[in-house]
Amino acid sequence: MTLLDGKALSNKVKEEVKVEVAQLIEEKKITPGLAVILVGNDAASATYVGSKAKACKAAGIYSVVHEMPDSITQNELLDIIARMNENPALDGILVQLPLPKHIDTTVVLEAIDPLKDVDGFHPYNVGRLVSNLDTFLPATPFGVMRMFEEYGIELSGKNVCVIGSSDIVGKPMASLLTNAKATVTVCNSRTKDLKAHTTAADVVVVAVGVPHLLKADMLKENAIVIDVGINRLDTGKLTGDADFEDCKDKCSHITPVPGGVGPMTIAMLLKNTLKAAKLREKREHN
Ligand code: GUN
């Protein structure tokens, strides 16, 4: 069994970004900039946003976190985004999800300039991803694809089962895998006989937020398991959507939680912010 070490790979990606950021600053006098908008006081969201800001700093990327109270109106939020769209120092704009219920997430995501949409959540960029065109890839599935590449895991012709059909992970993951010529099945909470789908899969990607949903008896021999879940148990311990101890001996490759997919997400956000800054440089000099 090979452990897919997202911690080590994320450090490698962050180092790649840091070198390229330094080059961009030195040669083109452009410092990549990221704005993160955090609405309300969800503890997990605040932790993620803090980690994103810290990672930007370490990579030489300018970042600013806008913290807004829960009481902010949708129009106030849209005004802030409109100003960020016009701000030349900001290459990327990220609105941390989920948003409070009185705010329409789709309207907010559509207000972000697609050229600054480093999350890849704007419908324009979602369409480009589905069409296999160059775009900002949502950070978590982007990170998973980088893991496959790094560990020499060929996807063409493989049966891949994606459990979870969220806009943030499951759907873009399925599109990327389809573009890589995998045969993709997307399961959700209504799926009848989940086990029939997972046991037919060479690769299982699980992203549902249900601790230990995936067990060894749901896997074929030598399956590859990518666990996107990060669940905090009552004990305070973090655990994935796969039962790692149960699954690990049946797998050829598996991601641990923590230390698997999680660290990749932030590294790929930095990559997207660098990409946005390079696009700005091209626009300004052509
Ligand atoms: N909430 C959970 N994951 C994400 C993400 O990748 N981006 C944003 N903006 N919010 C999230």
CATH architecture title of the largest domain: 3-Layer(aba) Sandwich
Strand order of the largest sheet: 1-11-8-7-5-6
Order of helices and strands: EHEHEHEHHHEHEHEEEEHEH
Which segments are poorly predicted (pLDDT under 50) over 5 or more consecutive residues? none
CATH class of the largest domain: Alpha Beta
Radius of gyration: 19 Å
Total number of helical segments? 10
Could you characterize the architecture of this molecule?
It is a single chain. By secondary structure, this protein is α/β, with parallel strands linked by helices. The chain has two domains: 29-115, Rossmann fold (3-Layer(aba) Sandwich); 139-262, NAD(P)-binding Rossmann-like Domain (Rossmann fold, 3-Layer(aba) Sandwich). Helix content is 43%, strand content 16%. The protein contains ten helices and eleven strands. The strands form three sheets. Strands 1-11-8-7-5-6 form a six-stranded parallel beta sheet. Strands 3-2-4 form a three-stranded parallel beta sheet, with helices on both faces. Helix 6 (139-150) crosses helix 7. It starts with a strand and ends with a helix. The mean pLDDT is 98. Guanine binds next to strand 4 and helix 6. Guanine is lined by residues 94-97, 119, 139-140, 168.
